[in-house]
């Protein structure tokens, strides 16, 4: 499945102007990185992938729209998948994107 180009465009609108921003195709999607750290991605598996503080993962996955990102059958703290339906409004999208950007910005530059 190709990533949702409309979602990628909407994410781009939110992150444009962020210092240290780059775009890169990763994991079958289009990732937006801050200083080399993945902040958010329009996922090739649908919805959005974002990095969060691993300590926040248990609380965030209590929300029905969020789940742990799974890689090679293993769920990973610090990585969330957010359903597209939960990103319908600009406000919803901005809230999730802001979380990913803030966490990526807190990490050392790569």
What does this entry look like structurally?
The chain is α+β, with helices and mostly antiparallel strands and 110 residues long. Helices cover 29% and strands 34% of the residues. The protein contains three helices and six strands; from the N terminus they run H-E-E-E-E-H-E-E-H. Strands 1-2-3-4-6-5 form a six-stranded antiparallel sheet. Strand 2 and strand 3 form a beta hairpin. 34% of the residues are buried. The mean pLDDT is 94.
List keywords for this structure.
alpha+beta; single chain; 110 residues
Task: Give the class from helix and strand content and strand pairing.
Answer: alpha+beta
Number of domains: 1
Helix content: 25-40%
By DSSP (H or I, 4+ residues per run), the number of helices equals 3
CATH architecture: Alpha-Beta Complex
Q: Give the H and E element order.
A: HEEEEHEEH
- Oligomer type: single chain
For the termini, the CA-CA separation is 29 Å
The radius of gyration over CA amounts to 13 Å
Principal-axis shape: globular
Biggest sheet, spatial arrangement of strands: 1-2-3-4-6-5
What's the topology here?
Layout: H1 5-15, E1 21-26, E2 29-34, E3 37-42, E4 48-51, H2 57-60, E5 66-71, E6 74-82, H3 90-106
Antiparallel strand pairs: 1-2, 2-3, 3-4, 4-6, 5-6
Summarize the structure.
The protein has 3 helices and 6 strands, in the order αββββαββα.
